Amino acid sequence: MSARKHAEAKVDFSAWMQRLKAAGFTATDRGNGQVLLTKKGCGTVIEKSASGEPQFVVRPGILMREHIARLLDRGFQKFWQTGDRTVPAAAEQLQALHKFEQELRAVMGLTGLYNQNLGTVSSRYVYDRVEGREGPRVHKSFD
Fold first, then answer.
1. Domain regions of the chain by residue span
2. Fewer Cβ close by (within 10 Å): the C or N end of the chain?
């Protein structure tokens, strides 16, 4: 039985791509061994690792024009960011991204972590109260 598990672990990259396509993902070759995976307005970029399995090059996000927008959490609201452009995230988009990540993890056989299973996980957390904080204030004595 251990030989069977070992044989299943040695699935080549093309077999991974067939699994993903069978699950409804669209695969587009981007050159340099990278593949853009999309489904229902969400996308990610993967490439073949040294072991032959796919690895993420770009974290899953929403497709905005020809880019994959990453999720930015500013504490009070989530935003999509591509380069210098930042757009507020809608609830439907966050739900679509969460479903995309769940389906992707299920097909790839990845373990879902606790915080990932609760909802969407941001690529970056930036809170206004921390960003650009002034240095410590020096109080003068009343003498």
1. 2-125
2. C
Q: Does residue 21 sit in helix, strand or coil?
A: helix
Residue the block writes with tokens 């995976």:
37
Q: Is the pLDDT score of 12 beyond 90?
A: no
Closest CA to 86 of 73, 76, 98: 73
Residue 46: count of CB within 10 angstroms of its CB: 24
Average pLDDT rounded to a whole number, residues 102-111: 81
Kind and range of the H or E element at 76? none
CA angle, residues 91, 113, 40, in degrees to nearest 5 = 40
Q: Tell me the whole-structure pTM to 2 decimals.
A: 0.69
Alpha helices for the chain (secondary structure H): 2-9, 13-22, 91-108, 114-118
As a whole number of angstroms, the distance between CA 64 and CA 78 comes to 16
Which residues make Cβ contacts (< 8 Å) with residue 7, sequence separation at least 6?
A: none
Q: How far is CA 106 from the centre of its chain?
A: 14
For the ranges 40-44, 59-63, 90-94, 128-132, which has the lowest average pLDDT? 128-132
